[in-house]
Specification:
By secondary structure, the protein is an alpha+beta fold. The chain has a domain of about 100 residues: Band 7 domain (Tetrahydropterin Synthase, Chain A, 2-Layer Sandwich), CATH 3.30.479. The protein has five helices and three strands; from the N terminus they run H-H-E-E-H-H-H-E. Strands 1-2-3 form a three-stranded antiparallel beta sheet, covered by helices on one side. The model has no long low-confidence stretch (mean pLDDT about 80).
């Protein structure tokens, strides 16, 4: 151990043994066997298919979400809908159905219809008391929380329109307009 030349010889001898250990034990053996290569090709093919499928799905989803292009028309060519005729049902002052705290609704209501026939106007005039009763019943069945937002007021319009249209014989109401709406 004390002689540095002895250590060099020992290292060289050990190096020869290591070189022999690095040589393949079986001549002609490759780094990857054919089964490993086959498995890597299958995995690579699967990854490519997943990437292609994802890309196609993304493109289709983007196109489905967009509305179809429409033909552009000049402002002169746009047909405007005829305005509705309105029948005034008058002013309503109704208590809500709240039991914990009383609330009050004041509404002025107009019924819109597109028919210009005299029959519907005549029917609305004849049924005025019945139409007012239906409107009071629908409004009175609502609570404060059913009327305190615009969406809920639109729902109220829809409810009133459905009930009124269910009794009309000479036409249908197309719109309801609140010309006054006070909720306290």
């Amino acid at each position: 151990m004390g002689d540095p030349d002895d250590e060099a010889i020992d290292i060289e001898e050990k190096g020869d043994d290591d070189e022999e250990a690095l040589e393949p034990a079986v001549p002609g053996r490759k780094l990857f066997s054919p089964s490993i290569v086959r498995m890597l090709v299958i995995v690579a093919g699967a990854l490519i298919m997943i990437i292609i499928s994802g890309t196609v799905a993304y493109i289709v989803a983007q196109r489905v979400g967009k509305p179809a292009p429409t033909e552009k028309t000049s402002p002169e060519r746009v047909e405007k809908a005829d305005p509705y005729n309105y029948f005034d049902l008058g002013e309503f002052s109704v208590n809500t159905s709240d039991t914990d705290e009383p609330h009050f609704v004041k509404i002025n209501l107009q019924l819109g219809y597109s028919e210009t026939t005299v029959e519907l106007q005549t029917e609305l005039g004849k049924r005025r008391a019945q139409l007012r009763d239906i409107t009071i019943s629908v409004i009175g069945s609502k609570k404060f929380d059913d009327l305190n937002t615009q969406d809920k007021r639109n729902e109220l319009k829809k409810d009133i329109m459905e009930r009124i249209n269910s009794i009309l014989q000479d036409g249908q109401i197309k719109d309801i307009a609140f010309t006054e709406f006070v909720l306290t």
